[in-house]
Design a protein that fits this description.
By secondary structure, the protein is an all-alpha fold. 76% of the residues lie in helices and 0% in strands. The protein contains eleven helices and no strands. The longest helix has 26 residues.
Length: 211
C-alpha cells in the first residue's frame, strides 16, 4: 500500500519532484531521466515507472530553461529505443516456454497475454502503437522477442515508435505545460495523460470480456 501511495504522490506532484531533482542534481538530471525511461521500457518488471507524464514534465521544465529541450529529446529517445532493444533480447532469450508457466514471480501473466493478443491483432505496427499505452508499452518488445520477430524489422519500428513517443509528449509539455491552467492543475493533467493512454487497452479488454 505504501508503494501505491508513493507512486500516486509522485504522479500528482511530478512537477515538484522533478523541480527538486533539477535543483539538487543539476546536469545529472539528464542521466536520471535517461535511466528512468530506460528501465520503464527495458524490463517487464518495471512498468510502474512514470513514462508519458515524465516526458511531459521534462518538456515543461525545458520550456522555462531548466533543461535543454534538444538534450532531453535526444537522450530520452535513445533511452526508449535502447530499453526496447534490451527488452526484445530478454524475450528472445526466455522464449515461448514462458507462456506455459503457471506462476511467474515477477511478471503478471495477464499483462503478458494482453501484449501478445495486441501484437497478434496489429502485427509489427504494435511496436509503434504500444509505445503510447502504459504497461502494454513494456511488454510489447518482450513479446516480439519471444516471437522471434526479425531484429532489423523490430529495430525500425522500435526507433520510429520511440522517437514519436518522446517527441509527442516532450514537445506537448514544452508548448502547453507552462499555460497557467496547466500549471495550476498539473497533477490532474498527468493523471489525464495516463488515463487517455490507457483507453485503447481498456477498450480492448472490455471487448474480449464481452465476447
Amino acid at each position: 500500500m505504501d508503494l501505491i501511495k508513493n507512486f500516486i504522490d509522485i504522479v500528482l506532484h511530478l512537477d515538484k519532484y522533478l523541480g527538486s531533482v533539477i535543483q539538487t542534481y543539476g546536469t545529472w538530471t539528464y542521466s536520471i531521466l535517461f535511466f528512468i525511461i530506460f528501465f520503464e521500457t527495458g524490463f517487464v518488471v518495471t512498468p510502474f515507472l512514470p513514462g508519458d507524464s515524465l516526458l511531459f514534465a521534462a518538456g515543461t521544465f525545458a520550456a522555462i530553461g531548466s533543461l535543454n529541450v534538444f538534450y532531453v529529446i535526444i537522450l530520452l529517445a535513445s533511452a526508449a529505443i535502447l530499453g526496447d532493444t534490451v527488452n526484445y533480447h530478454i524475450g528472445k532469450f526466455v522464449g515461448e516456454k514462458i507462456y506455459e508457466k503457471e506462476n511467474l514471480k515477477w511478471i503478471k501473466k495477464e499483462h503478458l497475454i494482453e501484449a501478445r493478443n495486441f501484437y497478434e491483432k496489429y502485427g509489427s505496427i504494435t511496436i509503434v502503437i504500444g509505445r503510447f499505452i502504459p504497461i502494454i508499452r513494456t511488454f510489447v518488445p518482450f513479446v516480439a522477442g519471444i516471437g522471434k520477430m526479425r531484429y532489423f524489422k523490430f529495430l525500425f519500428y522500435n526507433a520510429l515508435g520511440g522517437t514519436l513517443w518522446v517527441l509527442l509528449f516532450t514537445l506537448g509539455g514544452y508548448y502547453f505545460g507552462n499555460l497557467q491552467i496547466v500549471r495550476d492543475h498539473f497533477g490532474l493533467v498527468t493523471i489525464a495523460i495516463i488515463v487517455i493512454s490507457l483507453i485503447p487497452a481498456i477498450v480492448s479488454f472490455l471487448k474480449r470480456r464481452k465476447r
